[in-house]
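My convention is simple: the sequence line spells out the residues, with the fold written below as integer tokens. I include a record here:
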Amino acid sequence: MDDETLSNDTHPSAFHKKHLSMLERLSKRHNQTRSEDPDSSSSSSSPSFESTSSFFSRFNLLKTSIDSQLTQSQSLTSQPSQLKPHFDKIAASISDLEKLVAENSYFLPSYDVRSSLHTVSDLKQKLDNLSSQLIPKKKFAFKSKGGNKKTDSVIVPQPEPEPSPVSISEKTSSITVRDSLGFRNETGRVLVEDVRGSEVGEFTVSDLDSCEVRIIGTVRALFVHRLKDCRVYVGPVMGSILIEGVEGCVFALASHQIRIHHAKGSDFYLRVRSRPIIEDSDGVRFAPYGLRYRGIEDDLRGAGLDAETGNWANVDDFKWLRAVQSPNWSVLPENERVGIVDISNPDNGKEEI
């Protein structure tokens, strides 16, 4: 395939062939990146499904279960009170399927990641259609099933800014906020969680406006939903990070795999083992990770993230299939970078060095 863009041929068959050719090229590029990293398959922190066949075995099992639940929905029309719990259960299953893709995508070929994410999107659409059809009076959406979970977090009060709602599109509102340790529904706060010496699985940050988040130590997975004008500083993440619906934010993150969906006008300071993935995003900029707290070097080594791969600048835009670089992201100019941010002391603001 030459460098001619996909849009130059509108014939459906030709478009399909070029589309598949582009996906194959993305897959080859991803595998080449893996071959240049000899430690990518031997790290002790690699996902449990460290092969394409075993991943798809689990993926297809969960998808079949979801399809079966969707088929059963019509039989519940005679029991309207059972429809909402039924749809909530399906929504949680789809969220688990999406999480499975995120946690394993760092070793999967790009084509398989893209195909799996499209399958998840199709299932979400089917669920939305069914729920709108069977519960027409109240549109269904993926929502949190539980309230805020109590934590030992330090919350440092800040002067209250003028309240402004977080602007979130209809697409991002269909994300499940998982019932895990985390920060939710705050405005104008400094939110600090020190997890050093403890084993933390998932950590969720959602529905924040004008907040600063500091997570000191290591967590297994991080989920970020619906943030506006926030700063998020996070120690090493053993698995994956999923970011959905953010605007005007700054992130400092280290992880094996990072997926960013519906981000606008935000900066990302990253250290990542695989290529970062963006979708439906614009005005996002990238720079190398620059975070400091006491013990972070040990945490980075323990998570297999002590080496700088340079992947922070190798971004894949899954909604941009042309041969030229996507205009939706760029490298953050050095003279605009914030420098190293020290979050060691939860009582003080960040220190730029």
The CA atoms of residues 6 and 16 lie 9 Å apart. Helices lie at 12-35, 52-72, 83-104, 110-134, 296-302.
